[in-house]
Amino acid sequence: MTKVSPSLLSADFGRLNQDVEMVNRSEAALLHLDVMDGRFVPNISFGFPVIEAVSRVSVKPLDVHLMIVEPDRWVSRVRDTGAAIMNVHAEACTHLHRTVQAIRAAGMKAAVTLNPATPVGCLEEIVADLDMVLLMSVNPGFGGQKFIERTVEKTRKLKKLIADSGSHAEIEIDGGVNLETGRRLVEAGADILVAGSYVFGAEDPEAVIAGLAAL
């Protein structure tokens, strides 16, 4: 089965508790939380108080994706929210190895995200130390964008890099995921699918999550 990580960014924040409970009941493996600062990406989402509130309700491990500048400043703070995975952008980290080691030392799984224009080869020296690599299949900052087709081939390249390095990192994809794109991504080597509007905008979100998990 494919792991599914519903993106809370697309949930109804007026009924956040109910949406988190829905994810709890579903076949989702993780719960994806996008933290945006209005600097690294052109949008602001939510911060630590929301993550802490979600952590108190969620039975799914929290997959915290920091779309922010200087993410290394916040390692201990992210840990204290109850996050299981801390995900930072390679483009935002001047000393990526140091940041990854700090995340692991804090007791979380270490994940690194690549923007659409960033080649997978930039991870050659660090991929063996990672638990997850997230490929953005849209430009980060907003939900509901169109899937970037080149991500399928990029997933294949990343899968080969992981295999060649002996890494155990899982491949996660975020952006424009639905049954059609999800199927092609899984065939290319993706392990985890992040889905936001496709899940939370559906009449039966649990059924949508189950469909993705069955890919």
Would you give an account of this structure?
The chain is α/β, with parallel strands linked by helices and 215 residues long. The chain has helices spanning 16-25, 48-57, 75-80, 96-105, 151-165, 179-188, 197-200, 205-213; strands at residues 3-6, 31-36, 62-67, 85-89, 109-114, 132-136, 170-174, 192-195. Strands 1-8-7-6-5-4-3-2 form an eight-stranded parallel β-sheet. The N and C termini lie close together (6 Å). The mean pLDDT is 96.
Q: Which series of helices and strands comes N to C?
A: EHEHEHEHEEHEHEHH
Amount of helix: 25-40%
- Major sheet summary line: 8 strands, parallel
- The total beta strand count reads 8
Computed over alpha carbons, the radius of gyration is 16 Å
Mean pLDDT: 96
Shape assignment: globular
Strand order of the largest sheet: 1-8-7-6-5-4-3-2
Distance from N terminus to C terminus (CA atoms, Å) equals 6 Å
Secondary structure category = alpha/beta
| Strand residue percentage | 15-25%
Outline the low-pLDDT stretches: none
Number of helices, where a helix is a run of at least 4 consecutive DSSP H or I residues = 8
Chart the SSEs and their pairings:
Elements: E1 3-6, H1 16-25, E2 31-36, H2 48-57, E3 62-67, H3 75-80, E4 85-89, H4 96-105, E5 109-114, E6 132-136, H5 151-165, E7 170-174, H6 179-188, E8 192-195, H7 197-200, H8 205-213
Parallel strand pairs: 1-8, 2-3, 3-4, 4-5, 5-6, 6-7, 7-8
